[in-house]
Design a protein that fits this description.
The chain is mostly beta strands and 444 residues long. The chain is 6% helix and 49% strand. The protein has 2 helices and 34 strands. It is elongated, with a radius of gyration of 43 Å.
Length: 444
């Protein structure tokens, strides 16, 4: 009986040793190079503590006893030097199945058409990789053979024309903590669309996002997404949107939200049209205009300067504006422009009007002024009644520029208009007690 039990124990130990050695010593496929390696080969490979220099023979490929520690999710700098127009590709068997054909197992591929090349790059073991030993394969392939599917050779176990390969061991000793997304951005912003993206974080198995016009942090779940970007064309113009993104770390674990805001473009809006001044008094007037398409508000300026405003006006949501506190008997310009949103405006449009004379002295002494003919061609006759002492006449064009000054010491005088261009002008009369403005038209 004891001998029987001993035999069972021996068989059990043998099977245990067999399965254990099979698990550790994975059998790997090997690429082929039908024309050999010669000088089409890796010369040096550097990553972490691996500082490898090629031996004299290019038929030795197993250097898995040479290893370096890496952290999953963290980029590791790598340098590979090879010769005779060789490309470079790096493969890692992430699931230890003896090949390099699975998704994400090709970490780098490049070809530079030079007689000798030094490739400087970074590789990143996915953040989902568990700590442990992984085989890394570095292939030097002739020309662009190893850089695209369907070439003369491709893959960690492909059939190549010229080249060689070398295998090493990467020891994943840790995993970066799963972190919230960074680098949120919005590009290609229009009135109704935008392209939204963010940088991938370590340990991510996916993400959730919320896009809203509310600035407060979401309290519920977001829309799941595997990638790090998406586009939308369902936005409204002139609106500020808030993008919130968080990382799905797996096992029902989520990071906090990262946020970013952007504002959509405004629809173009037209100028304010049909501006009029009504109910004009000595100190005020009602300025009205027709609404312009897509305007979200308006700005107005009322002044005695004919030139268009160079700065901002006063904001008003809609027509009309009732101006008050204006000086009497004075020519005024009422400018209005449309606000299109996002700091964009239409051009200014305007009208002009003259406030009424004040009651009192002018009415008591029956002051009056006339200008004829109107329209005028060469000569304009100004007649005054009951003026106070000597006065002055100023002729102003519609841009506010003074084109004539005339001293007045009589009740009637002629103004030479022959040298003026056709158009509207304003005759402004002032003396010790009076101020009055007339609008005239000059015609040839």
């Amino acid at each position: 009986m004891k001998n029987f039990i001993s035999k069972i124990q021996i068989v059990f130990i043998f099977l245990l040793m067999f399965f254990t050695s099979t698990t550790i010593a994975q059998t790997y496929c090997a690429p082929s190079f039908v024309n050999g390696c010669s000088t089409w080969r890796n010369q040096t490979i550097d990553i972490g503590s691996i500082n490898w220099v090629a031996p004299s023979s290019c038929t030795t490929w197993d250097f898995t006893s040479t290893s370096t520690n890496v952290t999953a999710g963290l980029a590791e700098t790598m340098t590979v030097t090879n010769a005779n127009f060789c490309g470079c590709s790096v493969w890692i068997d992430l699931n230890a199945d003896g090949d390099f054909d699975d998704v994400d197992e090709n970490l780098y591929t490049m070809y530079q058409p030079n007689s000798s090349n030094t490739y400087n790059f970074s590789i990143t073991v996915p953040g989902s990789a568990s700590p442990g030993m992984y085989r890394m394969r570095v292939i030097a392939s002739w020309g662009s053979d190893g850089t695209s599917v369907g070439a003369n050779g491709y893959g960690g176990c492909g059939a190549y024309q010229y080249g060689n390969y070398d295998d090493f061991t990467l020891n994943v000793v840790g995993v970066l903590p799963c972190t919230a997304p960074t680098g949120l951005s919005a590009t290609g912003i229009t009135t109704n669309s935008a392209n939204l993206s963010w940088a991938a974080g370590p340990g991510a198995v996916g993400y959730e996002y919320v896009l809203d016009t509310i600035a407060s942090t979401p309290t519920g779940i977001g829309t799941p997404i595997q990638g790090t970007s998406f586009s939308t064309s369902a936005l409204l113009p002139s609106k500020t949107y808030y993008l919130f993104v968080r990382t799905d770390c797996g096992t029902a674990s989520l990071t906090g939200w990262s946020s970013y805001s952007f504002t959509t473009a405004s629809l173009p809006c037209g100028i304010a049209m049909s501006i009029t001044a009504t109910s004009v008094t000595a100190n005020g007037a009602t300025i009205s205009w027709n609404p312009s398409a897509n305007a979200v508000a308006y700005e107005y300026v009322v002044s005695t300067t004919a030139a268009a405003p160079s700065g901002n006006g006063t904001t008003i949501l809609a027509s009309p504006y009732v101006a008050s506190g204006l000086p009497p008997s004075t020519l005024h310009y009422a400018y209005v422009r449309s606000y299109c949103g996002n700091g964009t405006y239409s051009n200014w449009n305007y009208t002009f009007f003259t406030t009424a004379a004040p009651t009192g002295i002018e009415e008591e002494f029956n002051f009056g002024i006339s200008a004829n003919p109107n329209p005028a061609k060469d000569n304009l006759t100004i007649k005054l009644t009951n003026q106070s002492g000597s006065g002055r006449i100023e002729v102003v064009d519609i841009y506010g520029r003074s084109v004539k000054y005339i001293s007045v010491n009589s009740t009637e005088l002629d103004v030479d208009m022959s040298d003026l261009s056709n158009g509207y002008y304003f005759v402004k009369y002032t003396d010790e007690s009076h101020a009055r403005t007339l609008r005239i038209v000059k015609q040839k």
